Amino acid sequence: MSKILVTGGAGFIGSNFVRMMLAETDHQIINLDLLTYAGNLENLSDVEGRANYAFVRGDIVDARVMSAVFAEHQPEVVVHFAAESHVDRSVLDATAFVQTNVVGTQVLLDQSRHHGVRRFVHVSTDEVYGSLGATGLFTEDTPLQPNSPYSSSKAGSDLLVRAAVHTHDMDCVITRCSNNYGPFQFPEKLIPLMIANAREDTPLPVYGDGKNVRDWIHVDDHCRGIRRAMEDGATGEVYNFGGDAERENLFVVHEILRLVGKGEDLIRFVTDRPGHDRRYAMDSSKAKSQLGWSPSFTFESGLAQTVEWYLANQQWWERVRSGAYQDYYSRQYGGR
Ligand code: NAD
Ligand code: DAU
Predict the structure, then answer these.
(1) 80 Cβ below 6 A of ligand 1
(2) Nearest residue by C-alpha to atom 3 in ligand 2
(3) Ligand 2 pocket by C-beta < 6 Å: which residues?
């Protein structure tokens, strides 16, 4: 049994990871999250009160607060999800991205070193590699060529983790994953946004020509990959995770309309995202051969399950969209 500090555990992937770890292991999980607009404790209401689960509200950028958290909880492992994660927001204002993704990661590395953390798992993204042409795949050796403020801040954090390994002999592993989808994803990202709009007969905004390609992976497959990297990844190594499921955005939107039972007349082509990366696709063969990992969902099975979840949990995304979910913290935790 280990004490694992999970940062960003109230977000989309973090909350799925916390739930999976509590269901499948007896590790002690400390969920550290600032609860920004993207952090939602309702995502984990089913595990509250578990003896091996604790939530701490805190900002990873605040070294004084982080020092107190590490001193109190003495984690052996850190799994670092906390980040500003949405590309479009980083185009509007990159400030929080540099603070949380770059400065916050360095604060966590420093605290981990000072408090004797055994292993630091840094959760990163395929976007650090930039954009692909019509062919080829990102491997762990692909040069870092991030194009957006978001991906640049993530690449910066990856390099700080690399430096911690080389300079301070820290035991760190970096995971880089393609586009996740599944339950509890904030409805600003393509798939949940399109499901919610289709459900409500609101136009579906497709950027540019809709032919940008993403490699879709179900969040459960990503979480299993992070766990395998945490358990058996080699120090200083990077592991790519992808869903072996490249799809054009327009294809994804058509599939969602079909599954929700709505017509293509809802599609609207809108102004393209500035600097929009054309294509991402992952070579996950290192994770497959060295960690014994492979994705279990096909895109078709995962998307059908996800659409079903959003249709069955309309209250969840309505509360998220209206901001009402943010009342939950004060109701649940009062002044703490
Ligand atoms: P998310 O936006 O849903 O969640 C981010 C979480 O971090 C939220 O709970 C938020 O409250 C918390 N947070 C933000 N700033 C914080 C701060 N200063 N201190 C403490 N907590 C803070 O993001 P996600 O989609 O779950 O992504 C999680 C991680 O995985 C990120 O590091 C992201 O870069 C990476 N990633 C995401 C994807 C994807 O497709 N979503 C793919 C690959 C990698
Ligand atoms: O590849 C991993 C990355 O995937 C993660 O690191 C990021 O945190 C995550 O947000 C995601 O980034 P993307 O920019 O690829 O995801 P997003 O859902 O924002 O967009 C997916 C594609 O859909 C992209 O080509 C832009 C397009 N899009 C998106 C939105 C929100 C639209 O056409 N219309 C939209 O309204």
Answers:
(1) no
(2) 179
(3) 85-87, 125-127, 178-179, 189-190, 193, 205-207, 212, 214, 249, 273, 280
Whose atoms come closest to the Cα of 98: which ligand? 1
CATH class of 3-184+218-245+280-296+325-333: alpha beta
- Report CA(25)–ligand 2 centroid distance (Å): 32
Tell me the per-residue pLDDT of 281-306, one tens digit each, with 9 for 90 and over. 999 999 999 999 999 999 999 999 99
Q: Write the pLDDT tens digit of every residue in 201-217.
A: 999 999 999 999 999 99
Atom of ligand 2 nearest to the CA of 206: 33
- Per DSSP, the chain holds a count of helices (H) and strands (E) of 13, 12
Q: Which two tokens stand for residue 95?
A: 């400030």
pTM for this model (two decimals)? 0.98
Cβ proximity of 279 and 134 under 8 Å: yes
CB neighbourhood size of 258 (10 A): 14
Q: Is the CB of 125 under 6 A from ligand 1?
A: yes
Q: Which residues are catalytic?
A: 126-127, 150
Report DSSP letters for 246-305, one per residue. EEEHHHHHHHHHHHHT--GGGEEEEPPPTT---B--B--HHHHHHH-------HHHHHHH
Distance 194 CA to ligand 2 centre (A): 12
Per the listing, tokens 């904030």 go with 186
Whose atoms come closest to the Cα of 42: which ligand? 1
Which residue would you say has higher pLDDT here, 1 or 175?
Answer: 175
> What are the percentages of helix, strand and coil residues in the chain, rounded to 5?
45, 20, 35
